[in-house]
Design goal:
Shape: globular
Number of helices: 18
Low-confidence stretches: none
Mean pLDDT: 95
Largest sheet: 7 strands, antiparallel
Bound molecules: flavin-adenine dinucleotide, zinc ion
Distance between the termini: 19 Å
Length: about 475
């Protein structure tokens, strides 16, 4: 590990304030391990600023001394972006966790970067509004991390990605200057929309210190149903049909392959198979009802017709809030069940909806061509064309991990053939920063590098992430 010059450490500690730093390896250690245990970090200094001014002072020192820094929120990122792997200073935003304001008139909430997503949802709920971003890591991930990864999750179908939910940002630039982009207007065509640059930038262009988020009317209730379908082809056709029936009030449309659900029944206590037979694919569908309309009956009718036509095999409606929770638990615990089951290779891809079924077939074939023992455990946000195409090889973990690169490459090639994306919602981090060069044109990469060079000329913000390694 490269050791920091003691005089730089001293300046950084001063900038962070007396309680804003730690050199204690035991305190730093949890920040260096990520969820899947794939990357192991190293850092001798953890900085934990309390306010924007602290971050500005820290970045000024980093700029002046050429010291690299890795921002971290809840450390739930799945591509290693938040992990300092070369002894960089770790900048945790977790103590910047205030909700600065909620405006019912503007329908906005201003949260600091370290606010945990569930806390932002709760603050919106207590004000009688909805902040719709929702993902399985919501109890730990932070608004700063959500903005920096442009997080997606289970409600994108109706409300969009994080990018669509941000009306303003406060960002500290690499030179320590604070950029106030908090105007919060829904219409504003005064030049380039600079805040968009920092959304999904994975901490490589600036440090997000606060965000103004859009609030929505709080649903009066939910219609939640688990639907078994005979084949994946049905999923897309049914989506369009049900959208009509539900006046486009559908908020979630998730898919789970039988194999992925079986892992949940095996590893997650208190879960049980709700269906008498084993259909190949299961959908979890949710409509968020406004107070003036309840879509349950319309959805029941639509699904009854689909059942008559043999398009679906079973439908199980949640009757109580507890039922709803139990259905969501099946979907949300898949990543955990998978982790408990052994080695897996995650692929977070998207393709046009019209090509989902084709991708699932050709993707699995391509994976098995690399390793015949491999199986795909597909689940994800099929309503957005986004699948978590997770590969496992039960009983053959070592062979699977040895074939990681070839498997990832095979999946990426299949995705690209169908004009899909190799990173739909998790970002690139360290996992795919080299792959971007294959799936973005030379012109796009040149422009991205020019942006990086302009905003971070000394390459001190999360170096080596997102863009291909080698040239910063
Ligand atoms: P971190 O992991 O700490 O950081 C993520 C990236 O953002 C890193 O590159 C980091 O350097 C950068 N960063 C963090 N904070 C800042 C800041 N203030 N300023 C600048 N850069 C910063 N993601 C989805 O999109 N959809 C899902 O459905 C989903 N499901 C998940 C389920 C599970 C079980 C888990 C473990 C993760 C899931 N994720 C999902 C991934 C992850 O939760 C998201 O990427 C989340 O947005 C990361 O937030 P975080 O606060 O944990 O960020
Ligand atoms: Zn997801």
């Amino acid at each position: 590990m490269s050791v920091l010059d003691p005089s730089i450490v001293q300046k950084l500690k001063q900038a962070a304030g007396p309680s804003g730093w730690s050199e204690d390896p035991a305190e730093i250690a949890p920040h260096l391990r990520e969820w899947r245990g794939r990357w192991k970090g190293e850092s001798q200094l953890l900085l934990r600023p309390r306010e924007t001014g602290d971050v500005a002072r820290i970045l000024s020192v980093c700029d002046e001394t050429g010291t690299a820094v890795v921002p971290q929120g809840g450390n739930t990122g799945l591509v290693g972006g938040q992990i300092p792997t070369s002894g960089e200073v770790l900048l945790s935003l977790e103590r910047m966790n205030r909700i600065r304001s909620v405006s019912l008139e503007d329908n906005t909430l201003i949260a600091e970067a370290g606010v945990v997503l569930a806390s932002a949802q709760k603050a919106a709920g207590e004000a009688g509004r909805l902040f719709p971003l929702s993902l399985a890591a919501e109890g730990s991930c932070t608004i700063g991390g959500n903005v920096s990864t442009n997080a997606g999750g289970v409600n994108v179908l109706r409300y969009g990605m994080t990018r669509d939910l941000v009306l303003g940002l406060e960002v500290v630039l690499a030179n320590g200057r604070v950029l106030d982009l908090m105007r919060g207007l829904r219409k504003d065509n005064t030049g380039y929309d600079l805040k968009q640059l920092f959304i999904g930038a994975e901490g490589t262009l600036g440090i997000v210190t606060a965000a103004m988020l859009k609030l929505f009317p709080k649903p009066a209730g939910y219609t939640t149903v688990l639907v078994a379908i005979p084949g994946v082809e049905v999923a897309v056709e049914l989506l369009n049909r049900l959208q009509d029936f539900s006046f486009r009030l559908m908020t979630a449309y998730e898919i789970m392959e039988r194999r992925a659900l079986d892992l949940v029944f095996k590893h997650i206590p208190g879960t049980a198979d709700p269906f008498p037979e084993h259909p190949g694919w299961t959908l979890l569908i949710e409509i968020s009802n406004p107070s003036a309309f309840d879509a349950t009956e319309a959805l029941e009718q639509a699904l009854a017709r689909a059942l008559e036509e043999g398009r679906i095999v079973h439908a199980l409606f949640a009757k109580t809030a507890r039922d709803r929770e139990a259905l969501w638990r099946l979907r949300e615990t898949i990543p955990e069940a998978q982790r408990l089951d052994g080695a897996s290779i995650a692929n977070d891809i998207s393709v046009p909806l019209s090509r989902i079924a084709e991708f699932i077939r050709s993707g699995e074939q391509a994976v098995r061509a690399v390793l015949p023992e491999a199986r795909v455990f597909t689940f994800g946000h099929v309503g957005d064309g986004n699948l978590h195409f997770a590969v496992q090889a039960p009983g053959h973990d070592a062979a699977l991990l040895a074939a990681r690169e070839a498997i990832e490459r095979a999946v990426q090639e299949e995705t690209a053939k169908l004009r899909g994306s190799i990173s739909a919602e998790h970002g690139l981090g360290l996992a795919k920063n080299d792959a971007i060069a294959r799936y973005r044109s030379a012109d796009e990469i040149t422009l991205m590098r020019a942006l990086k060079q302009t905003l971070d000329p000394k390459n001190i913000l999360n170096p080596g992430k997102l863009l291909p390694s080698g040239r910063g």
